[in-house]
Amino acid sequence: MDIIDFEKARKVRRNKERLTTKIQIVERIYIVNGKVNFEVSGEKEVPINLLNTRYKAELHQL
Predict the structure, then answer these.
(1) What is the DSSP string of 3-38?
(2) Judging by beta carbons within 10 Å of its beta carbon (0-12, 13-18, 19+), is residue 51 exposed, middle or buried?
(3) Number of other residues whose CB lies within 10 A of the CB of residue 20
(4) Of 3, 16, 20, 43, which is most buried, counting CB atoms within 10 Å of its CB?
């Protein structure tokens, strides 16, 4: 029989939530009357470390 430590499970889940972030998935970008609009199809959870390492140079240029 397995024993589940609920407090430990909560801590693991909280740590996992802290290490991930939700980003929007953009389907379409268009311009109407000089204003940029975009359509979002959903959200996806990604690790923050992935964003920091992969897009670090581009984020500093913005």
Answers:
(1) ---HHHHHHHHHHHHHTEEEEEEEEEEEEETTEEEE
(2) middle
(3) 16
(4) 20
Place of tokens 């430590």: 5
Instruction: Kindly report the pTM of this predicted structure.
Output: 0.48
Q: Are 26 and 40 in contact (CB under 8 A)?
A: yes
Q: How far, CA to CA in Å, does 5 sit from each of 1, 10, 11, 12, 16?
A: 13, 9, 10, 11, 17
The mean pLDDT value for 25-46 works out to: 93
Summarize pLDDT for 1-31 with one digit per residue, the tens. 678 888 888 888 777 777 888 889 999 999 9
Adjacent-strand bridge partners of 22: 45
Among residues 49, 26, 50, the alpha carbon closest in space to that of 39 is found at: 26
